Amino acid sequence: MKVSDILRVKGGTLFTVTPDQALSAAVDTMAQHDIGSLIVMDRGELAGILTFREVMLALVAKGGSIGGTTVGKVMDDEPITCTPETEIDELRRLMLGHHARYTPVMSQGMLMGVISFYDVAKAVVDAQDFENRMLKAYIRDWPVEEPGDERKAAPN
Description:
By secondary structure, this protein is an alpha+beta fold. It has helices at residues 3-10, 23-33, 52-61, 71-74, 88-98, 117-140, and strands at 16-17, 37-42, 45-51, 102-107, 110-116. The protein has one domain: CBS-domain (Roll), CATH 3.10.580.
């Protein structure tokens, strides 16, 4: 399974901000849309990512107030990225290794979407559920051995 498979199911809604935007406005956007990250774009290029982690660190640093802070002052300006062709297992290892909860998906310099660790976990669970259903259906359809059947198991 690839990142493109998750993006296809997830949909294409993206929320972005610019580095010079007020952090308070970005937090409002995140709360209003119940999202955990915003992609920071500057002149059409990926400049960074803002997640609740950066917001919390800014709140602690500023004594509980974000005041006139801008997104650019607190964003992660070197987020890990992946491509639509990245395999899910590779992305999972990458996200775990970097403690990343959100990963921008880039293709030839263009932002294609954002994958969250929740998206990855859900895709893995859905794939396992599908495989389990298929295996159970296969087992249920297994031919029943008749007495005297030639297909008996060989003795140990």
